[in-house]
Amino acid sequence: MDKGLAVLQLQHGKWTISDSEDEDNIIPPTPQKDSNKPKRKLSPKRNEDTHSVKEPSAPSMGSEARKAAHVNQTLPVKYESHPSPSVKRKRETEEAGWNLSSSDDETPPPAPKKEPKKSDVSPKKKKTEDKRPPSPHGTSYYKEEPADFFETNLLSMNDMYRFYLNKVTGIPKKFNTGALHIKDILSPMFGTLKESVQFNYCFDIPWMVEQYPPEFRDKPVILVHGEKRESKARLIEQAKPYPHIRFCQAKLDIAFGTHHTKMMLLWYEEGFRVIILTSNLIRADWYQKTQGMWMSPLYPRLPEGSPGTAGESPTNFKSDLLEYLEAYRAPELAEWIDRIKQHDLSETRVYLIGSTPGRYQGPAMEKWGHLRLRKLLSEHTKPVLNEERWHVLGQFSSIGSMGLDKTKWLAAEFQRTLTTLGKARKSLTSPETQMLLVYPSVENVRTSLEGYPAGGSLPYSIQTAQKQLWLHSYFHGWHADVTGRSNAMPHIKTYMRVSPDYTQLAWFLVTSANLSKAAWGALEKNNTQIMVRSYELGVLYLPSAFNMSTFPVEKNVFPASSSSKGFPVPFDLPPQHYSSKDQPWIWNIPYTQAPDTHGNIWVPS
After folding, report:
1. Which keywords, in A-to-Z order, does the entry hold (predicted)?
2. Which of 94, 478, 512, 553 is buried most, with the most CB atoms less than 10 Å from its CB?
3. CA distance 601 to 453
């Protein structure tokens, strides 16, 4: 065991280790008011339904628990506070309120606690449906954004790459110029909305409805989700006041899979638009986190009588999007599939990379997950000079179980995919190619805008971490001075191939997929089958689609410029390796040695 984790164990008691080889979906404990030792071991496990807690079976991550993470929540523990009794958390009782994150590998955040004054203590009140705490910081944390926070025109938008970051509250205005809030995306600036579809993992329906402008607020919306049983009932209950909302349940037939895709389909009077993004439909995800999206051009309607195959792009985006939607086998999406066929998507310059649950053999193996990425890199990129010195870079907000050592998946099939450039000249990955992984350290989280509660969206568990200490030597911290987002913890996920001097990209991918086998797929049966558990979606930027050989890395991302040819990588290059004192953020152990930016400590019980 690495020394840092050993120390944490000595200080805070022994933590049990889950026996799942796949995903660790341990349910988070609720933090105590202030105690140095956990009161109990972490051992709850989930059944095959990703979203409900049952009697023990293999544990997994992402889950019903995150959707009820606000239960029994109060404010964070103040650094000076004194020990007091812990509060136990009910599990399957409330609808989604603040859900800090999402992923097949993400567990819900422990709710931080504040030491109450004696005068504050009052008899426990029954929770009501309309009393959802909006944040782990408490009800007063969010501030309404001023009118000038939002975009008023499209002049500052870079429409070459159409890759945008979310706006972040609490950073200088310059770093939000050309970034987008959900209210911007849904505003009349981009089109006169008639209907929409929201694909996502976490939903706060009342908040989501408010993000639509008043004139579009009652237009029909379909929510595509992966909820089952009680959590599905709660989602439907949330929507009762909104008769314009309908639901489409994504089929999740493989254990521990999730519907993790985040996409908007927007149908306007003027045409149609697609947004593929990294944010959940909850307020926390749009407030002080680094998130990203690809926004399509406005797709015009094809002339009446055009064949369905018309309006295809050089990247085959139209047929790939239709194939992804058809994979849901959902009657609720049939009308949208027909609608997309009637539009001209030929201006699209990105490639679609999706994951859909299943076990695939033969040609179907290359349709989804990392083998889909491998196929595109093989067919549409070319080898570069000294390519073994071009780094592979992965950046994510959650980590699944990688196996006992790097040869089990990460440095084997996954690295082989990420190092593909053109047709294979050799079957094995070059040992010289460096893989750099960017994931926030404890210090990154402690000093962030949100403080320790930001770690609720970075749910790497002690159970998983202890099984793969070999992985931590790959880790680099989160630093994003280039976008003014060093203190806005990432929920964005990006992967890229970058030149030895970090000035050029061979490709760039923004996606919902974290670093996990559930998201990307894992080979089985002597490499004749790939098994994918979850729905994921992202877009791949290849220089060839832009008539370029590589993308130059943009040095001045903000304020955004419509004329820039550089690619706006959201964080600083080169990444900085963890120092000897740094540890990866692990969400379910205490951090009591130093207060965060709000004067709080993190004490899971």
Report:
1. Cytoplasm, DNA damage, DNA repair, Exonuclease, Hydrolase, Nuclease, Nucleus, Phosphoprotein, Repeat
2. 512
3. 10
What is the predicted pLDDT for the residue at 523?
A: 98
What is the rounded distance in angstroms from the CA atom of residue 248 to the CA atom of residue 252? 12
Q: Would you say 474 and 433 are in contact if contact means Cβ atoms under 8 Å apart?
A: no
**Using CA atoms, how far apart are residues 431 and 163, in angstroms rounded to an integer?**
32
Residue 491 annotated as catalytic: yes
Amino acid symbol at 119: S
Q: What is the 3-state secondary structure (H, E, C) of 129-164?
A: CCCCCCCCCCCCCCCCCCHHHCCCCCCCCCCCCCEE
Both structure tokens of 25? 């979906």
List residues bridging with 273 in a β-sheet: 266
Alpha-carbon span 58 to 62, nearest angstrom:
13
Task: Check if the beta carbon of residue 204 is closer than 8 Å to that of residue 179.
Answer: no
Please, which pLDDT band fits residue 562 given cuts at 50, 70 and 90? Answer: confident
- Predicted structure pTM score: 0.83
Nearest to 7 by CA among 594, 589, 598: 589
DSSP of 293-315, one letter per residue? EEEPPPBPBPPTT--TT-S--TT
> Which residues sit opposite 180 in a β-bridge?
166
Would you say 42 and 16 are in contact if contact means Cβ atoms under 8 Å apart?
Answer: yes
Length of the chain: 605
Question: Is 166 strand, coil or helix?
Answer: strand
pLDDT band at 142 (very low <50, low <70, confident <90, very high): confident
How many Cα atoms within 13 Å fall on the side-chain side of residue 122?
A: 4
Distance between alpha carbon 446 and the CA centroid of its chain, in Å?
Answer: 20
Q: How much is the CA Rg of the chain, to the nearest whole Å?
A: 23
The burial class, CB within 10 Å (0-12 / 13-18 / 19+), for 3 is exposed
Query: How far is it, in rounded angstroms, from Cα 197 to Cα 334?
Result: 12
Q: Given 225, 343, 491, 598, which residue is catalytic?
A: 491
What are 86-99's pLDDT values in tens digits?
Answer: 222 222 222 233 33
Phi, psi dihedral angles at 532 (to 5 degrees): -120, 135
Q: How far is residue 547's CA from residue 554's CA, in Å, rounded to a whole number?
A: 17
pLDDT grade for 150, boundaries at 50, 70 and 90:
confident
Q: 366-378 burial, b for 16+ CB within 10 Å, e for fewer?
A: bbbbbbbbbbbbe
Let me know if 370 is a catalytic residue.
Answer: no
51 token code pair: 């979203």
Other C-beta atoms within 10 Å of 62: how many? 35
Q: Look at residue 20 in the predicted model and tell me its pLDDT.
A: 31
Give the C-alpha separation, 392 to 194, whole Å: 42
The H-assigned helical ranges of 188-257 are: 205-211, 229-238
Which residues carry a binding-site annotation for substrate? 262, 493
List Cα–Cα distances, 206 to 74, 95, 195, 454, 498, in angstroms.
21, 12, 18, 23, 42
- What's the rounded Cα separation, in Å, for the pair 262 and 276? 6
Query: What is the residue whose two structure tokens read 């995800």?
Result: 285
Which residues are annotated binding-site positions? 262, 493
Closest CA to 554 of 181, 173, 161: 161
- Catalytic residue chosen out of the listed positions 260, 370, 476, 598: 260
Candidates 39, 136, 29; CA nearest to 84 is 39
Q: What would the DSSP string read from start to end of 15-54? A: ------SS---PPPPPBPSS-SS-SS-----B-SSTT-B-
